Amino acid sequence: MSFWETITGSDLTRQWKVFEARAAALPADYPAAWEQIKGNLLPYAGFTGRNLMPIIDAALGLLEEASVDGQSVDEVLGDDIPGFCAALAGGAGARTYRDRWREQLNANVARKLGRLGG
């Protein structure tokens, strides 16, 4: 990965296109699950989303293996796809970008109030 790819994110775009091509080759009931997985994993992304690429690759690999084995989406993911995605991202209590931003905002407000009160 070159410096330019890192700055522009073109490597991520290429990788994402490969993921989408792999997902398009899945059987009929899998694309809907893939869309739900993407939607539920994106809140756990960092600023660039690079941290999610291995997780998304693993989730897609799981769907591919399950389709080859003839398993249904429900057998693989269960009925709680958001919970499945939270577990993939680091557990049910995994911090999202919203949590990080909230902590940063609270720290900034506390710092400002500390200056005003002191």
Instruction: Give the name of the CATH superfamily.
Output: c-terminal domain of poly(a) binding protein
- Mean of all residue-level pLDDT scores: 82
Helix content: over 70%
Shape: flat
Report the major sheet: none
Strand fraction:
under 5%
Sequence stretches where pLDDT stays below 50 over 5 or more residues: none
**Would you give the CATH topology?**
c-terminal domain of poly(a) binding protein
Examine the secondary-structure arrangement and name the CATH architecture: Orthogonal Bundle
Which structural class do the helices and strands define?
mainly alpha
Q: Can you characterise this structure?
A:
With 118 residues, the chain is an all-alpha fold. It contains seven helices and no strands. It is flat.
At a glance:
The chain is mainly alpha-helical and 118 residues long.
What distinguishing features does this structure have?
118 residues, c-terminal domain of poly(a) binding protein, 7 helices, mainly alpha, 71% helix, 0% strand
List the helices and strands and how they pair.
Blueprint: H1 3-8, H2 10-24, H3 30-41, H4 53-69, H5 73-77, H6 81-88, H7 97-117
Helix pairs in contact: 2-4, 3-4, 3-6
